[in-house]
């Protein structure tokens, strides 16, 4: 595919399109030819054992990790292109991490406001109104002036989601966002994500929460050792897997 | 059940743990003052046996105090200027040390290591003899007096040490901070100045203040190259008073006292900040 002659992307095409994506770290091949299509507004859950390349896979989509081979199109734009404007791509693709990674020297509200004000150069007052609305949306009203160190893990993670949403992304990537949380706070974070999915935001979610995947996902991908073993609607993959590896994995986690 | 009432003996060691379990000797401000007072008083007693025409050591110090203190102020001025210059250049060097471009990192590494592992006095001589007396720029002659050269000389090791402090602090910030800033489309420069460096401040402040203390004390080295700072003036005052040996201890004791009174609070503050930041982190 010639990147220079790409036709304009239209919303009926896949918003994220991976073709035979390969990535190695040294001699370790982490992604061995991944192909997937994500439609606009879809919620995708990626499940699989640790070390199966799930995190690397979604980090490739916002160019945090450069791929070796293959093609990633985000809204029709080739990500595997040396001339790619990474910052423009990342304005469209939000990401939330396992370790929250809030900026500890800023309050929750400032964390949410920073990127729109400094990256998008939007009007501070308008951004503040939006940031306060987002804090309400993630049900953290009243915590605007708290520093990350004063918040619980679940609260920090919800601020991180609000921070990402403040950029008004078209696509959200969630990288095991509940893996570092206490069981009690997992629910509140999942509830927030579920709400985003219901709002119609395109979400790619790497998760170990099978119950959540079953309820929320339109499509589930099971990955193991760098390949997609099988994929399909959650009831097929999670309840009636065809592949032995999927069965073995589900037996372990369920 | 109330353990505080039933087991008072078991509780006390827990409380004690906050303090050192045994008395630790700590140098405190009054120790320095006491030593200085003893020196001055003892020398006064020694002079009581001297001739009536000679001033007592305290008299000598009082007489020359304005001059000596102006010398001390000069020391402080040199230290402040060297620190400012060294910090600005050192910050740049430290940022170069984490650059994405390899040659830039190498240059920063070489400069930092060279000036960090050189004796301060040698660097001072180096600046004295390599920096010209004056500098012509577009027909304007800018003179470079010795004290400016001394400032440059002291700023070299400051620069190298600040570079290391900055580099270390930046490296100590978790990768996740870079990653999440990247994912929010911050440019590298924005990430550095808005997200990484502000977090580095609290890590850099204590070693930076410690460095300042060292620079202040090192400024007396400038006497070797003839800058009229406090040590030079003290020696001149001693000569002017006839080089009486019993004046040596009080005069230099006074110089010591001045430095102690200035540097000790900085040291205390540094420790307090170190402690506070450690507790928070």
Label the overall shape of chain A: globular
Q: Can you identify the CATH superfamily of chain A?
A: P-loop containing nucleotide triphosphate hydrolases
Q: Could you say what the CATH architecture of chain B is?
A: Orthogonal Bundle
The biggest beta sheet of chain B is recorded as: 2 strands, antiparallel
Counting structural domains of chain A, the number is 1
User: Low-confidence parts of chain A lasting 5 or more residues at pLDDT below 50?
Assistant: none
Beta strand % of chain A: 15-25%
SSE order of chain A in H/E notation? Answer: EEEHEEHEHHHEHEHEEHH
- In total, how many domains does the architecture of chain B comprise? 1
Protein name (chain B): Glutamate transport membrane-spanning protein
GO biological process, one term (chain B): amino acid transport
Keywords (chain B): Amino-acid transport, Cell membrane, Membrane, Transmembrane, Transmembrane helix, Transport
Domain ABC transmembrane type-1 (chain B): 72-270
General description of the model:
The complex is a heterodimer of chains A (254) and B (281). Chain A has helices spanning 54-61, 86-92, 108-118, 124-137, 153-165, 183-198, 210-216, 234-239, 244-253, and strands spanning 16-25, 28-38, 43-47, 69-74, 77-78, 93-96, 171-175, 202-206, 219-224, 227-232. Chain A is of the alpha/beta class and 254 residues long. Chain A has a single domain, classed as 3-Layer(aba) Sandwich (Rossmann fold), CATH 3.40.50.300. In chain A, the strands form two sheets. Chain A has a six-stranded mixed beta sheet, sandwiched between helices. Chain A has a four-stranded antiparallel beta sheet with strand order 2-1-4-5, covered by helices on one side. In chain A, helix 6 links the parallel strand 7 and strand 8. In chain A, helix 3 packs across helix 4 (124-137), helix 3 (108-118) packs parallel to helix 5 (153-165) and helix 5 (153-165) packs parallel to helix 6 (183-198). Chain A is globular and about 50 Å long. The termini of chain A are far apart. The mean pLDDT of chain A is 92. Chain B is mainly alpha-helical and 281 residues long. Chain B is 75% helix and 3% strand. Chain B contains eleven helices and two strands; from the N terminus they run H-H-H-H-H-H-E-E-H-H-H-H-H. Classes of the chains: A alpha/beta (254), B mainly alpha (281). Chain A binds chain B through residues 62, 64, 87-88, 90-91, 93-95, 97, 99, 101-105, 114-115, 118-119, 149, 160, 163-164, 167, and chain B through 174, 176-177, 179-187, 190, 194-195, 198-199, 280. Chain A: This is Glutamine ABC transporter, ATP-binding protein.
